């Protein structure tokens, strides 16, 4: 009995020592990565990056710049954008993007966004009403939703719009955003489409204080999420910059198949 107690005690002490060594190693590793991150920030001082961590290639690190994965080598002071694939053709870069994007989108608060529709597929849209690709996206999603509604009698999408005027490019986009935000919820879709299509004059646009106040909230959401271009779309935990119809179709079809299987 004494031998067993001694053996258990010895094992417990060994495990405690081993755990302490692991914890110390992990702390040192965190400190080392932090130091490397600071070194790279100093080397590439014109670049702002987040989500710094070791890459799947020895000696290299990966970070996020504008929703893209960038690879950095501190010793050689090199940086490149590109895809890393396994021998089976799986993109490790895409897996990393999705991991980081999922983390970001979980924190995204769009409670002040405009809501259009009440379908089973949610899509968050950061849009500028003077942006031609936002217009193309609006035509695509409206057509897609109308076709589904004709067949099933209900919306396919719940659209959450965050109006994001890019003032440097479109000097009147903020007026258009205020006009839309002055509308009642039942008129959001009509006002958004009418404005995107350029079917309303500035003289006929609303300019209410409510719209101006709401636009400040929308700008704050966009700034916190780091939106730098429109459209920026969030669907199924993924962030899509620009109107990538092929990618959107693939995600929507995948989600439709899940709906059918229920």
Automatic annotation (TrEMBL):
GO cellular component: periplasmic space
Annotated keywords: Periplasm, Signal
Domain Thioredoxin-like fold, residue spans: 117-243
Signal peptide: 1-23
Family named by the database record: Belongs to the thioredoxin family. DsbC subfamily.
Annotated PANTHER family: THIOL:DISULFIDE INTERCHANGE PROTEIN DSBC, THIOL:DISULFIDE INTERCHANGE PROTEIN DSBC-RELATED
Protein name (Swiss-Prot/TrEMBL): Thiol:disulfide interchange protein DsbC
Organism: Candidatus Thiodubiliella endoseptemdiera
């Amino acid at each position: 009995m004494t031998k067993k107690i001694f053996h258990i005690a010895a094992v417990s002490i060994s495990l405690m020592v081993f755990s302490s060594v692991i914890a110390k190693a992990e702390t040192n590793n965190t400190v080392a990565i932090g130091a490397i991150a600071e070194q790279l920030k100093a080397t590439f001082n014109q670049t702002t990056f987040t989500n710094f961590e070791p890459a799947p290639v020895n000696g290299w690190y990966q970070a996020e710049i504008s929703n893209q994965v960038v690879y950095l080598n501190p010793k050689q002071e090199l940086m490149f954008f590109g895809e890393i694939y396994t021998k089976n053709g799986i993109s490790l870069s895409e897996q990393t993007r999705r991991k980081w994007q999922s983390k970001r989108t979980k924190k995204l608060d769009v409670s002040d966004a405009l809501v259009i529709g009440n379908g089973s597929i949610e899509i968050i849209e950061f849009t500028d009403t003077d942006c031609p690709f936002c217009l193309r996206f609006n035509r695509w999603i409206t057509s897609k939703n109308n076709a589904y509604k004709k067949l099933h009698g209900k919306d396919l999408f719940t659209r959450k719009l965050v109006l994001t005027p890019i003032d440097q490019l479109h000097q009147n986009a903020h007026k258009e955003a205020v006009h839309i935000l002055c509308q009642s919820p039942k008129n959001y879709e009509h006002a958004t489409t009418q404005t995107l299509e350029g079917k309303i004059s500035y003289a006929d646009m609303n300019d209410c204080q409510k719209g101006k106040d709401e636009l400040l909230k929308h700008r704050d959401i966009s700034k916190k999420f780091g939106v730098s271009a429109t459209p920026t779309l969030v669907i199924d935990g993924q962030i899509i910059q620009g109107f990538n119809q092929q990618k959107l179709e693939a995600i929507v079809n995948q989600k439709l198949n899940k709906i059918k299987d229920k």
